[in-house]
Protein: Hydroxymethylglutaryl-CoA synthase family protein
Amino acid sequence: MTAVGIDAMEIWTGKLKLDLAETFAPAQGDDPGKYTKGLGLHASSFPDVYEDIVTMAANAAHRLMERKGLEPEDIGRIDVATESSFDNSKPVSTYVAGCLEQVYDGDFHHANKGERKFACISGTQSLDDAYNWIRAGRNRGRAAIVIATDTALYARDDPGEATQGAGAVAMLVDEEPSLVELSTEQGFGSADETDFLKPNQQFPSVDGKRSVNVYLARMREALDDFASQVGDIHPDDYPLIPFHTPFPGMVRKAAALGYRHIIRGTDVEDLVAEEIGHQPMREDFESDDEFRDAIREYTDALTETERYQDWYADTIDPTLEISREVGNWYTGSVHIARAAGLKHARENGRELDGQQLLVASYGSGAQAEVHAETVVPGWEEEIAQLNIDEQNRKRYDLSFEEYEQIHDVHNHDTEADVEEFTAPESEFVFDGWGRMGERKYRYVE
Structure:
């Protein structure tokens, strides 16, 4: 069976930076550690005045096509995943295709275009769609471009404000990939939940505590479902585990739950038991509350063991390196986690050929998906092409007053006349409004 997976990827971050410790925390009267240690975030990325979800998506896709030497005729499908869409009918993918047609001789009239919505998991669902399209033989030798693009903007003084971020990830999905091969096995955990939603509004309504609990519950279900297909899972099976990362602090919770779950009944649990005992069992407690308290105590003790901390440092922490500097990208967050983990592995000489990543995606509302991806030879060359570190270094460092201005620019309910903070160069930019209220774009040399 021909391998299908991610052949290459590109990342495009918003050009503005908000330093959480140096700029945001003092203005809020907060201890910087609330953000750097609690949330695990150092900075957020924001779009400049001329940037939005279309420009970021089109710029990431353009760089991807240029690097891979592709023309429009090579692409048979463009899927965009976003929860920041500004049109309830016309998909963002059509805007992206229109941008790209400004710089190529050919067009994308032959390409299937769509937009996926299921909160943050829709980026992974779009990957699944592209995978299935190729597997079904409907691609006629063409590849798919999958783009996750979002501006995660919260209302001012909302508890989620510090987790904001903006950027796009473009992925080329094709046969015989050069980065990772997608597996056929998937595990799902899904339920009708009201933890995070945007009912005809730009800013999300969030039940923060419930959202964390729903995230963990759906992840546990997805992991169980995945294990039911592949058999027993051992923590040593996966050198990297990229999670959906609304903020790194959330991943710390998910990783502890996942580790506790997959060591159950393994040699690792027996070794850990020498320090903290075996995992509590429900039948040993009179009530659910007592059992939950015991599980909580066990998990806290587990995360203090040297064995767990070594596993976390090797398997989880590398996947958070980009997110710490750019914030939450909603649909793109798990995909920058994958990129960060592979980037760290390359820079530190880790040998990953033929090894599997365990990718854990999540979307509020709510659904989690767990699947494996096999790292293929040549992955180092692909990851070496990413320039996210350079992009982050070049970001304009906002003052708090400037942050307030740019927040108003991207708030649909606010009229703001703000000069751009950076100068566009060789990229697509927002170019005003058309006769039917549509957004227009042009390419700046």
